[in-house]
């Protein structure tokens, strides 16, 4: 079955023939990757000391106005490769000492990814599915048995905010269903002797300026639903870029008092399994260079979008 001919891989359910045009994600049925390299700035149990083997896919099924990776999410920068090349990349990252293979914004390329994972031989590090949380349960079920660690966002409990900032009013519904399926597949969290995650789920939540109530609702839902079966990652690294100039309420950093308010709430309701951020995490230096590193064996400038 060619899932790209009438694409319904994500909740956008756009149904377009991606062999002829692009979907809401901005991508055709060709596989585009912008960067494949060791990344040191994930959660400690994902990056460790040697780094996470991140593969940044071009395109995105969300339209977040504050996206830090706009070059690849909405400008669609990237290099065309095959599934066989993707399988080679996985092994190259493993050879560089990656703790895992970290698939970043992979939703709209799931068939390519499965083909690559079926083809690869000798890969013995965990596979991480790192997504925005706006996922189709049917697509996630295709990945059952392939993914060891799920690393989704849960951006919004408030559908009004989801519509305003990500053009996805139904985000809370689909994120909840998706996380349910991820927990079903991953089971409990497992770590090795160095406290590197081998299996499990970490749900990320980026605190937005002006919207601590949304953050509290997300955290309360996750803890009431899953307790200590999952980890949360509560982030303060929101970086206001030029794209949010017309949204004054989020055109600033998260204040220390806002972040502390959210963390205090998490502690009050009993959350223990959580990663938090300290100090100056707001920086454009956290945004990688999407220059094709590790993607093509020899960069062909005519092949870049």
TrEMBL record:
Official protein name in the record: Radical SAM protein
Requisite cofactors: [4Fe-4S] cluster
InterPro entries associated with the record: Aldolase_TIM, MJ0674-like, Pyrv-formate_lyase-activ_prd, Radical_activat_CS, rSAM, rSAM_sf
Residues at which [4Fe-4S] cluster binds: 60, 64, 67
Domain of life: Bacteria
Species for this entry: Hominilimicola fabiformis
Details of cofactor binding: Binds 1 [4Fe-4S] cluster. The cluster is coordinated with 3 cysteines and an exchangeable S-adenosyl-L-methionine.
Protein family according to the UniProt entry: Belongs to the organic radical-activating enzymes family.
PROSITE patterns (alphabetical): RADICAL_ACTIVATING
Matches recorded under CDD domains: Radical_SAM
Keywords (A to Z) from UniProt: 4Fe-4S, Iron, Iron-sulfur, Metal-binding, Oxidoreductase, S-adenosyl-L-methionine
């Amino acid at each position: 079955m060619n899932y790209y001919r009438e694409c319904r891989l994500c909740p956008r359910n756009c149904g377009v023939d991606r062999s002829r045009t692009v979907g809401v994600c901005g991508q055709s049925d060709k596989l585009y990757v912008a960067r494949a390299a060791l990344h040191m700035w994930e959660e400690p149990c994902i990056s460790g000391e040697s780094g996470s083997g991140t593969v940044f896919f071009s395109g995105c099924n969300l339209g977040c106005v504050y996206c830090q990776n706009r070059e690849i999410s909405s400008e669609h920068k990237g290099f065309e490769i095959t599934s066989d090349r993707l399988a080679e990349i996985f092994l190259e990252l493993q050879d560089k000492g990656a703790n895992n293979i970290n698939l970043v914004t992979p939703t709209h390329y799931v068939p390519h990814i499965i083909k690559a994972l079926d083809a690869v031989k000798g890969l013995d590090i965990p596979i991480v599915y790192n997504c925005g949380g706006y996922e189709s349960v049917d697509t996630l079920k295709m990945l059952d048995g392939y993914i060891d660690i799920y690393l989704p966002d849960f951006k919004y409990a408030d559908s009004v905010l989801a519509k305003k900032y990500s053009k996805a009013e139904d985000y809370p519904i689909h994120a909840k269903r998706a996380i349910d399926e991820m927990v079903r597949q991953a089971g409990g969290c497992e770590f090795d002797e160095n406290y590197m995650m081998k299996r499990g789920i970490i749900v990320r939540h980026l605190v937005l300026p002006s919207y601590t109530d949304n953050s509290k609702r997300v955290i309360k839902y996750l803890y009431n639903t899953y307790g200590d079966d999952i980890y949360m990652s509560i982030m303060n690294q929101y970086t206001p870029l030029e794209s949010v100039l017309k949204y004054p309420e989020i055109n600033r950093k998260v204040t220390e008092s806002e972040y502390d308010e959210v963390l205090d709430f998490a502690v009050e309701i009993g959350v223990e399994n959580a990663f938090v951020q300290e100090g100056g995490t707001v920086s454009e230096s956290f945004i990688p260079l999407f220059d094709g590193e590790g993607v093509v064996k020899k960069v062909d400038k005519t092949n870049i979008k």
